[in-house]
Amino acid sequence: MPQPTYQETILPELRTWQEEMLRDPSLLNKLSRKVQTKLNSYIPEKIHAAITATIKQMIRGVLFGAKYITAKPAQHSSLELTEAIARERIEFYKKTAAAEGGITGAGGFLLGLADFPLLLGIKLKMLFDIASLYGHSVEDYRERVYLLHIFQLAFSGQQHRREVYLQMVDWETKKDFLPEDIHQFDWRNFQQEYRDYIDLAKMAQLIPVVGAPIGAVVNYRLLNKLGIYAMNAYRMRWREQQMLPGGIHSAPEA
Question: What pTM, to 2 d.p., does this model score?
């Protein structure tokens, strides 16, 4: 009996992930969303606008800066090799994020606040590297939008995650209809979902004494989740590209 190919072994994992992305919010998810929405309603609009603008500028700075220090799209001999290298890169960024979280967590409140932009940069740089490994050019504005979608998948509530996932399905067709201006991206929802998702875990990092180990563990887990989501998002792209006329794909089969 012939051994399954690497592609055949990862398809069940991809399908499980896709089913998870499409899952309806649980009762707990819905209750948590209502509570968070209520809390957000107490925050003045000026504060929301300021946070949105800050995160937008921070992310745009990384998005348009990291492309100059990211390798050109790779052309590996197989998807298996691509993913072996991707896992190594994810491990590197997980350890980097853990070290950064431990240092800022040990530094008290003020240094703890610096963790937010530093961690954001590490996450986005990892996504840039993964995109390049799967053969996608981050110089293409549409690829950077795809990265933002992956980011939202990993750090959003289930309802928003489902909506974002549906925007990513059949990306090879949808990307041609994207607005040319990144300012049209929904930054308000982006920052609010991200902030709501990580607030509790990151607030614990500011607690004296325990902040360092908490910061290291939380950052490690956040990068691990982002890495898993990114790999599956690009597997989905690979699968869709194989089904196009001519079977074009970014990583050749083994």
Answer: 0.79
